[in-house]
From TrEMBL:
Region (Disordered): 591-622
CxC2-like cysteine cluster KDZ transposase-associated domain ranges (all copies): 1-49
InterPro entries: CxC2_KDZ-assoc, KDZ
Superkingdom classification of source: Eukaryota
Full protein name: CxC2-like cysteine cluster KDZ transposase-associated domain-containing protein
Organism taxonomic ancestry: Eukaryota, Fungi, Dikarya, Basidiomycota, Agaricomycotina
Organism of this sequence: Ephemerocybe angulata
A Pfam family it matches: CxC2
Biased composition (Basic and acidic residues): 591-600
């Protein structure tokens, strides 16, 4: 070894590999994801290009030695060979993972007291932003495995410790938690077709959301889809050394459904981390949110959530394009070998981010400083168009989106249509009646099916009974006191204005209730159109996914069945709109209204719309979109109502512009704090390695002290370069804000 020759085996070695060779391969495989097999074959070609078969085959020995070389290199580079944990008491012991120097790391680059003294309006400056995502390319094939092949890193890298993870996972029940959001239909189709012949279907990972660093023990294997239990474990392990954090924000493309019972799950499964998860808030990444339903877009968009800066949440997606290059070789490896290899690639990704963190933050700061004056000027100019009392009224509104007890989402970033809750409850009851009618029409009359019908009728009985009592108190009429039977409740006609003749409505003095119900059904019609548009987009996306990814008769059959389900959702949305318009006409709605037009079944056909999931094709420019594609506001309004609608649109624009400006201001403050933390991290590393270089125990071992001094010079250079870049970035500019 002192001759810089690495033996292929410990006992009676016959072959050795030079350190230069192993270092060269390590560099090649990190930068290009070249496999040991390809590198070994290249060496044989270099040795004898005419007859490479004459060169001895040392492939298996090379795999074994290069794997140990990776491990020893990571131990040296991380400082574990110098027992650095004696001086770095913050964070996780024995870890080899390159940690993010810009994220708040309590006790390392920011003091706990500083975070504790920060006000709620400074939350964004000290929030740990993290993101979660699954990758289905990093699979491992179902093949003969060596049970003795365990990871050398043993949970000290990016992967959680496999033995602990598998033991915990075996205690959990498999549940279907793909959720109900339309965006998650793609997840269901992936579960159907993507995991053929794979014992491990991919990984789910936790990164820091703003800088893209994999977190220690934040990666776990998936066996089928992105089940919550697996993401929970990855989140639990990645945050296990973050107990001093005051604020944490998670970006996850299925946050809408994942968050529903997150705190309850952690209280039951990981009680030691339950308090930490109470500090967690979340959002859906900015690109993914566009494919979610409107309610998700209102509740979980980074664009509208305060104290999130301009965090997009999509950075983790950029990681996979790099790591996927290794999937061809890692899917063939044994379990431990695969973990060690991916740990090395992920840690190298962190190191590359570490090298460029100062220039990245400087560039981001320059961009936001260039844009911020224009955003402020434009917002101030728009604000001056309105009376001061109107602006004050808007300012008094709660900016945070929320969901009320009726699961209706309220957001200042969306136009508001007032709903009379009494009529709203009546329409909800009619929807429940239709649901029971569908159950009754089902031909499967087994006991479970009949129990569903009986339970639905009992619930409906109590709800209708309470609603009728409210109706009797508000609109006295002798018919309201008639006793009800639980049998065939779904066929009872509720005394809503839409179910009465014009004469009956007049005699019961239901004019006000009629207007309220008309507005509600108008909203229902718009909801139907919105759902139809989303259903068409979802169907088109999955058709393309099937065409590009599904191979084989079995997967194709299952995919076709799933597409039929999506098609039925499209039909159901069209029926919802037609039913709403039919009721509107009974209530006196203008049949010639240009916005809510008659809809035939052919209007639901996906062929009527361009498929935005695929590139434009020949004939798209001549194809007209369906009339309902861009319906934006209710028609048939009076002049006064149009004026109110115009003010409502201005209010929405004002809040959206304010959110953009506020996010830019928050981003500026976040970046300034990140600059401080980056410099503090580099100084801390330089001080720690300097101390290690001075320790007698390292001076007594040849090379240890000199390597520590090399690390001191490296981190000192990082620190000096960062200070220079940040100083230049924060120099005041003389440019004037744009008038546009």
């Amino acid at each position: 070894m002192r001759a810089q020759l690495f033996p292929s085996t410990i006992a009676l070695p016959q072959t050795a590999f030079t350190f230069d060779l192993l270092s060269d391969f390590h560099t090649h495989t990190l930068t290009s994801k070249k496999s040991p097999y390809d590198y070994h074959e290249a060496l044989r070609q270099l040795t004898n290009s005419a007859f490479p078969q004459d060169v001895p085959d040392q492939y298996h020995e090379f795999c074994r030695v290069s794997r140990v070389w990776r491990y020893l290199s990571s131990q040296r580079q991380s400082g574990q060979a110098h027992e650095i944990d004696r001086l770095l008491k913050e964070g996780r012991f024995h870890t080899i993972v390159v940690r993010c120097p810009a994220c708040p790391d309590v006790g390392f680059n920011v003091e706990k007291a500083e975070i504790e003294l920060a006000g709620e309006d400074e939350k964004h400056k000290y929030t740990l932003f993290i993101s979660a995502d699954g990758n289905y390319r990093l699979q491992r094939k179902a093949k003969n495995d060596d049970p003795d092949d365990v990871a050398l890193n043993d949970g000290h890298g990016c992967f959680a410790r496999a033995q602990d993870y598998q033991k915990w996972l075996s205690s959990q029940d498999e549940v279907d938690d793909t959720g109900i959001c339309a965006h998650l239909c793609a997840v269901r189709l992936q579960n159907i077709v993507k995991f053929r012949n794979a014992v491990i279907s991919g990984v789910v990972a936790i990164q820091c959301a703003r800088h893209g660093f994999f977190m220690s023990q934040g990666v776990v294997d998936l066996s089928k889809g992105e089940a919550y239990a697996r993401t929970d474990y990855a989140l639990y392990r990645s945050l296990s050394d973050q107990s001093d954090q005051r604020w944490i924000m998670l970006s996850y493309d299925i946050w809408c459904s994942y968050s529903a019972k997150l705190k309850k799950r952690f209280a039951e499964l990981f009680p030691e981390s339950a308090e930490l998860v109470q500090k967690l808030r979340g959002a859906v990444p900015k690109m993914h949110i566009k494919n979610h339903i409107v309610a998700c877009q209102q509740l979980w968009s980074f664009n509208y959530l305060r104290n999130s800066g301009q965090t997009c949440g999509e950075m983790i997606e950029t990681t996979w394009s790099d790591l996927n290059q290794a999937s061809g070789s890692t899917r063939e490896q044994n379990d431990g070998h695969r973990h060690d290899t991916l740990d090395d690639f992920m840690n190298y990704w962190n190191w590359k981010k570490f090298q460029g963190i100062a220039s990245t933050i400087s560039e981001d700061y320059a961009k936001v400083m260039k844009r911020l004056p224009t955003l402020k000027a434009n917002f101030d100019q728009f604000t001056k168009r309105f009376p001061a009392e109107l602006i004050q009224e808007w300012k008094s509104s709660d900016r945070d989106p929320y969901r009320d007890n009726n699961k209706v989402v309220h957001s200042v970033y969306e136009a508001t249509i007032t709903k009379g809750m009494f009529s709203f409850k009546g329409i909800e009851l009619e929807d429940q009646q239709l649901a029971i009618l569908e159950l009754v029409a089902d031909f499967s009359k087994d006991n479970e099916h009949l129990n569903h019908i009986s339970a639905g009728r009992r619930t409906l009985y109590h709800r209708i009974n309470n609603w009728m009592k409210m109706y009797a108190m508000s609109y006295l009429h002798p018919d309201n006191s008639k006793p009800m039977s639980e049998d065939e409740l779904e066929k009872i006609v509720l005394p809503l204005p839409s179910n009465l003749t014009q004469l009956s409505r007049a005699s019961r003095k239901l004019d006000s209730l009629t207007r309220t119900e008309l507005k509600l059904w108008e909203g229902q019609a718009h909801d139907g159109l919105a759902e139809l548009g989303m259903a068409i987009k979802t169907y088109n996306f999955n058709v393309k996914f099937k065409k590009d990814n599904v191979v084989g008769q079995g997967p194709n059959t299952r995919a076709e069945m799933f597409l039929r389900t999506l098609n039925s959702e499209k039909v159901r949305a069209g029926q919802k709109y037609r039913q709403a318009r039919k009721v509107l006409l009974r209530l006196g709605f203008d049949p010639h209204d240009p916005t809510l037009r008659p809809m035939d079944e052919k209007d639901e056909a996906t062929e009527q719309s361009k498929n935005t999931s695929i590139p434009s094709k020949l004939g798209d420019s001549k194809k007209s979109e369906p009339w309902f594609w861009n319906v934006s506001h209710p028609g048939g309004l009076t002049e006064q109502e149009k004026k109110k609608w115009s003010v409502e649109m201005d209010r929405v624009k004002w809040f959206r512009d304010k959110a953009v400006r506020d996010c830019a201001e928050e981003e500026k403050e976040i970046l300034e704090e990140e600059m401080k933390r980056v410099v503090a991290s580099f100084r801390k590393y330089a001080d720690v390695w300097s101390h290690l270089a001075e320790e007698q125990r390292n001076k007594d071992v040849p090379g240890k002290a000199s390597y520590a001094l090399h690390k001191v010079a490296l981190y000192t250079r990082f620190c000096d370069d960062a200070e220079r870049l940040f100083h230049n970035a924060r120099k005041p500019t003389t440019s004037e804000p744009s008038s546009s």
